[in-house]
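ugh ok fine here u go
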Amino acid sequence: MSVMLPWPFMHKAPSSMTDSEKQLLLQLARASIGSRWEPGLQDKILVIQQQLERFAQPQACFVTLHLDGKLRGCIGTLEATMSLSHAICHYAKAAAFEDPRFYPLDKSEWVDIIISITLLGPLRPVPAENRETLLSRLTAEKAGLYLKDAQHSATFLPMVWQQLPEPAQFLDALLEKGRWQAGIWPTAIRAWLYSGDEFSE
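structure:
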């Protein structure tokens, strides 16, 4: 999954979000993507943003797109820099049109994609002086994982555990994603865990 990887920033996921508010966020993401072809959707975007005014605090989040059961785009950030409604608009469009792993979404695909949103909890530092120490934490808590050293960084959202259920498999895939050298534990690597509230259409 593509991700903006800034320096870790502590934040809180919004609490007491209702199911109807989550559905509004999903509608907001879909309208934001569709506004590329249907400018009239801008009015709907403004109405939804007004309905979500109570979530004005900056929020870290990801927007993920699937098409025919396969990943079609995923962009987000670990750093809370925008209000929730503006972040959803921004990352929905980025997932659809700027994920470098995919060609930009076509209008014909827009009606068939399934949109998921993940709201992130605080980044919590965990020991990572060696592989075994980090694996023990991953075994105890299957959360999102963010790794970083002086040259590389990478993250997996909590949802990735569904595809990579074994901690060693999960960790190795993330190290590969971050382009660390296989078989050698990265020098001075740091690690953070985080929770994620995921919901889908």
